[in-house]
Amino acid sequence: MDNTAASWITPPSRPELIENLVSGVDRYNPNNVGILEDYLYHQIRNEEYDCLANLAILKLYQFNPELYNPDVVINILIKALTASPLPDFNLCVSLLDERPVNAQLDEPDPLPTHLPILRGLNDLLFRCRFPAFWDIYRSDDLESLRDNYTVEVAGFDNAVRGVVVRAVKAAFTRISTARLGSYLALSGDDLAEYIAKLGWTIEPATSVVRVPPNPENQIEATVVQESIKLPQLAKVISHSVSKA
C-alpha cells in the first residue's frame, strides 16, 4: 500500500476516538452521528480531510433518515471536491441515491438545488477544465453556495489549487506562467509567490515555469517484446493455410 492510499484510509490527523468509530461496528451506531458531524466541522475549520469518516455520516443518514442534515451533506460534498481526481465525490453521491423521506426539516431542503451545481464543479475539476471551474464557481449564479457554504471552509480555494498542482505535476515539465495562472486563478505577485512556495522556478526570459521531474511527468521509452512458441506459430500457419 502506497503512502497516498494509507493516508486516505487513515489520515494522520484523525483522532483516536474517530479511528475507533470508523474502524469498528460503532460506525453504524446512530448515537455517534453527532460526534462524526462535529469532526466534519473540525475538518472544515482546520483544513483537514477524512473521507471515510464523512462516508460514515452518509451511511448513518441512509440507515436513519430522521438524522438527515442537508447542510452536513453539502459540506461533505464540498470537502470531497478537493480530493479530485480521487473518486471521493462520487463515493459520497452514491450514498445519496435514496433520499431521506422521513427527515423532519424546518426549512426547504437545499440539497436538490446544490447537488447539480456540485456535480458540475466536480466534473470540471476531474476533466482539468480549471479556468472554467473558477469562472463558474465565482459567478453570480453560485453566490449562495459561496456565501452559505464554501466561505466557512478554511482554505477552500487553496485546496482546489492543490487539485490543479497535482494535475500539472503529472502532465507538464514546462508551462507558461499565463496558462498556470489561469489554472490557479492567480496573477502577478500572488502567482509568483505561489510558484515559489511550490519550489518551482520561472525562466525570466520566457516566463515559463519549470516543473520539477517526478515519476508521472517523465517520458520513458518502453520496449514491448512478444514471445511466440513454435507450437503456437505452427497453429497460426496451419489456420492460415486452411483458410486459403
Please report which band the strand proportion falls in: under 5%, 5-15%, 15-25%, 25-35%, 35-45% or over 45%: under 5%
Q: Determine Rg (CA atoms, Å).
A: 24 Å
Number of H/I helices: 13
Low-pLDDT runs: none
Q: Could you say how many structural domains there are in total?
A: 2
The ordered string of helix (H) and strand (E) elements is HHHHHHHHHHEHHEEH
Strand element count: 3
| Known CATH architecture of the largest domain | Alpha Horseshoe
Across the major sheet, the strand order is 1-3-2
The CATH topology of the largest domain is: Serine Threonine Protein Phosphatase 5, Tetratricopeptide repeat
Shape: globular
What level of helicity do the residues show? 55-70%
Which secondary structure elements does this structure contain, and how are they paired or packed?
Layout lengths: L2 H7 L6 H8 L9 H14 L4 H13 L6 H12 L6 H7 L16 H16 L3 H8 L5 H6 L7 H16 L2 E3 H8 L3 H11 L2 E3 L4 E3 L19 H14 L1
Main location: cytoplasm
Family: Belongs to the eIF-3 subunit K family.
Subunit structure: Component of the eukaryotic translation initiation factor 3 (eIF-3) complex.
Descriptive overview:
The model has no long low-confidence stretch (mean pLDDT 89). This protein has helices at 3-9, 16-23, 33-46, 51-63, 70-81, 88-94, 111-126, 130-137, 143-148, 156-171, 177-184, 188-198, 230-243, and strands at 174-176, 201-203, 208-210. The protein is mainly alpha-helical and 244 residues long. The chain contains 13 helices and three strands; from the N terminus they run ααααααααααβααββα. α4 (51-63) runs antiparallel to α5, α5 (70-81) packs antiparallel against α6 and α5 packs parallel to α7. It folds into two domains: 1-154, Alpha Horseshoe (Serine Threonine Protein Phosphatase 5, Tetratricopeptide repeat), CATH 1.25.40; 172-244, Arc Repressor Mutant, subunit A (Orthogonal Bundle). Strands 1-3-2 form a three-stranded antiparallel beta sheet. Helix content is 57%, strand content 4%. It is found in: Cytoplasm. One of its GO terms (biological process) is formation of cytoplasmic translation initiation complex. Belongs to the eIF-3 subunit K family. It comes from Macrolepiota fuliginosa MF-IS2. GO terms for molecular function: ribosome binding; RNA binding; translation initiation factor activity.
